[in-house]
Amino acid sequence: MVKLIALYKQPKDKEAFDEHYFNTHTPITKKIPGLRDMKVTKIVGSPMGKSEYYLMCEMFYDDHDALQTAMKTDEGKASGKDVMEFAGDIVSLMIGEEVHE
User: Fold this and answer.
1) Phi and psi at residue 96, in whole multiples of 5°?
2) Closest listed residue to residue 8, CA positions, set 50, 51, 61
3) Which of 87, 100, 96 is nearest to 22 (CA)?
4) CB atoms within 10 A of CB 75
5) Are the C-beta atoms of 55 and 43 separated by less than 8 Å?
6) Taking residues 25-51, what's their average pLDDT?
7) The pTM is what?
């Protein structure tokens, strides 16, 4: 399993961010072909107190090829375009592989 991780820093306007993220961006992203699961976590703090991060989204794909194929679809491009327009200055994107020991 491979996942694309989107990690968002604290937005200036949390209410506007949530409105767009959950009502516009999430429905676009859920339409991406090959997406197996999508888990969203609101960051509520850290062991050291306040966190610079606000939200994390993990999007699961079968493998690297499935992820690359998904990103090339119209739906993948639409999701990428949308995230850059509303959160390009606060989002970091990473690709990870789950480790099972």
Assistant:
1) -135, 160
2) 51
3) 87
4) 17
5) yes
6) 95
7) 0.92
Closest residue by Cα to residue 4 from 62, 78, 52: 62
pLDDT exceeding 70 applies to what percent of the chain?
Answer: 100
Contact indicator for 67, 34 with CB cutoff of 8 Å: yes
Residue matched to tokens 């820093």: 9
| In the chain, beta strands by DSSP E | 2-9, 37-42, 53-61, 91-97
b/e sequence 17-45, b meaning 16+ C-beta within 10 Å: beebbeeebeebbeebebbeeeeeeebee
Summarize pLDDT for 52-79 with one digit per residue, the tens.
999 999 999 999 999 999 999 999 999 9
Report d(CA 25, CA 86) in Å as an integer.
Answer: 9
In 10 A of CB 76, how many CB atoms? 22
